[in-house]
Model the fold of this input.
Amino acid sequence: MGNKIFVAYSRDDRKGINQLPRTLGVEHTFRNSDEVYRLFSSNGNISDQMKKVIEKNAKWSDLVVVLIGENTAEVKWIDWCIEKASMLGKKVFFIYLDEAGSLPDSSKNFGYAAVGMDKAGEAINGSTPIWETSTGEPFPKYNIDRSSC
Done:
């Protein structure tokens, strides 16, 4: 049985959703962020209702996939979604589209893997995180200061 996958994306990157079932396999169940965009306000702020929809979908999912397009890093609610999914114990995968920009800021602290569409299945089904840039090069390592409780 496949995973339940919540897919978050910039409105401009909706076309990338159609590639996922072909790339990852039809055994997975997908929900996308269309419902979030129906609640989207023109000022770009994240409403409480948007947060509830994102949280509901993140709770439902086994993992979260964020499609990385040209302007994804600028979409405020995607950072909030990444942080919330991580707090709920969900792995967050970043999949670069053809016209990929930079990763959202929260990816450094909460992401599990970042790959191109050609390696998405390997990343999601594998046991080792794969971190690559949008060009397929190994991702530079971050030195993150972490404290223990």
Remarks:
- Helices lie at 19-24, 34-38, 48-60, 76-87, 107-110, 120-125.
- The beta strands are 4-8, 29-32, 63-68, 91-96, 113-116.
